[in-house]
Amino acid sequence: MKIFNQITALLSVLILLVCTNLSQETSPDTGDPANGGSHVITTLQAKPTLPPEVAVSSKDNLAMLERRKKQLEKHFATLFPTSADYPLIADWILELDRAISEINHQAMVPNVTKVSLSTITPTQSEPNCIRSPNEPGFCLSVPIDKRTAEATDITLFWTKDQNITKNYVITKFIVEVAADPAKFSNGRFRKPIFEREVAGDGSQELNQKIPEGTLASGKQFYWQVFAVYQPEGSSQEFLKAGLKTPAMAGTVTKDNARSFKTAQQNFGGPESIGLTLQRTVAGDDATEAAEFGFLKTFKSDTVYTANFALIYDSPAKVTRTASYGFQASVQGSLTSEESESEDSLQFRAGAIINKAFRENSLNGFTLQLGAKYEADQKFKVGKFISENMITPTIKELGIGFPLGKRSIAQFNWRPFLYFDVGRALKRGNSNEVEDAVLRVSPRIRGVLTLHFLRRALNLNNTYLYFDNQFYYLPLEKRKDRNFFTSGFQLQITDNFGFGLTYKNGETAPKYERVNTFGGVLTIRFGKSEN
Amino acid sequence: MPCGYTRNQITDIVVGVYCGLLKDPTITSGSRFGPGNEIDIDDHARGMFAFPIKQSIDLVPDCILKKLSPDKCKKAKTVGDVIDEICREFKIP
């Protein structure tokens, strides 16, 4: 009990420290742009400078106004609020502030665009879409090459011309789709089933939706985009195909067409009569699929399961490198009958804090500080717990970012660390027998996306995953518990998927031994995901 | 004063951030998130984009992003959804 009280006190101090530290983030950071990870982002974060076309007098004027404002602010700090000068100087500072904003606003908006445009130009040492200044340099974007299970009314996207120096003018783009990849000598498809022209002057977005009825379901198609351009001083038009994938400058690519396969239509019938199926009636998230699961406990009976999580996120307060939000959730693992399978209900509420380590970086962490009531599905076990979780995102270690080749397989992983402290209100038949609850629990989750299999089977996605959570319970007689889950998921289309899972170990709140093999079927139709 | 950005400018900035940080020049507003899609990163990493996007947008005094949170970036299905979210906040048609 003494240990428990000490740990509770320690945790309170820790949370207080974290909150104090994070609250200092509420003012915009002034990170050093030199710390930017890449040239690209350094450019983005460069202190805004006035473009050359903005009169020099504006620049001087701005500097002068800022100087004056600074001097007044210095003077203002020395004044008493009762002084006659106080409101006068305050008004003056505000006026100057408005004038500075006005100049910045007029000058910076076009300049920001120029700065940001340069960010899509990668350095020459990396594959890019840039070509010689005499011909357009752009790439195909969406869908990625050899994408499977695409909608039949897909929208094709390509990038802007990314050349910086241009000795030509693009008059239009031509989008082509064909079922047969055979081409004429100029690169155009011999038998296109869809062709459309898109303006090249920026008046139209660089994408093209394929009308419903053009593409058959479950078939392979090829697509490409040509820029039609006129070299400077010439009225003759030329064609240049967009690159299938970014390449090193000077590389000659043989084929500029990408391919994709359309999905099999499984639910055209029910959809056409207006039926919708998803996980819950109340939810409006079209990505939520209805789940039907079975679980076979080794050497025992089969039971049926449902896993769900209902989450509410409040609007977060966001600064340049941190965000603070509130989240409440209900999470359940329910079974058709009490068995050796894990069952739990968790009601959570707390703060979600995301923090980037520095500007211009994706590296950072997510911290969850909250309280939860943890029960079994019959509410025989009840524990009130402060649940605290941290997970980092570090690009260099592949945490959150895929490792491997998109052509074969990619691996994603993420570590988590949980620190739970609380009290059992109803012990029930839980194997965590002490009234005081203390858990230190590292968890790791990995996903291996099997792109080669996805393409071979024309599935939306196929992946293997594992999830291992280790519990260190210092107040218990038996101090270590472990829960391992792994599985294989075949996401056949957006509507329909099938998975197999294997579970072994003991998990909160009951820590009953589980050794099961099961399957889950996910079905959704009616509402479009996009 | 209303924010003077146009939708095209917002698109250029947001697409620029994704292209730059992921070193993928083929990303456009139509690029989709998720396994097997054009931007195949997990949802926590997806959320972290809220910060560099904010840092890039906030260069203009009247255009300070306040509502684009990591959660909104996590829930976006495409880069275009993030652009829409920003345009909605600034009331850009």
For this entry, give a set of tags:
heterodimer, A: 530 residues, alpha+beta, twelve-stranded antiparallel beta barrel, six-stranded mixed sheet, 6 helices, flat, B: 93 residues, mainly alpha, 5 helices
Main sheet specs of chain B: none
Pair of chains with the largest interface and how many residues each contributes: A-B, 89 and 57 residues
Secondary-structure element pattern of chain B, one letter each: HHHHH
Name the overall outline of chain B.
globular
Structural class of chain B: mainly alpha
- Helix and strand pattern of chain A: HHHHEEEEEEEEEHEEEEEEEEEEHEEEE
Strand content of chain B: under 5%
The major beta sheet of chain A can be summarized as: 12 strands, antiparallel, barrel
Count of DSSP E strands of chain A?
Answer: 23
Fraction in beta strands of chain A: 35-45%
N-end to C-end Cα span of chain B: 16 Å
Query: Can you tell me the number of structural domains of chain B?
Result: 1
Q: Which regions of chain A have little confidence, pLDDT < 50, spanning 5+ residues? A: 8-56, 108-123, 274-290, 526-530
**Helical region count of chain B?**
5
Oligomerization status of the protein chains: heterodimer
Overall mean confidence score, pLDDT of chain B: 90
What is the helical fraction of chain B, as a range of percent?
Answer: 40-55%
Helicity range of the residues of chain A?
10-25%
Summarize the entry for a quick read:
With 530 residues, chain A is an alpha+beta fold. In chain A, 18% of the residues lie in helices and 39% in strands. In chain A, helix 3 packs across helix 4.
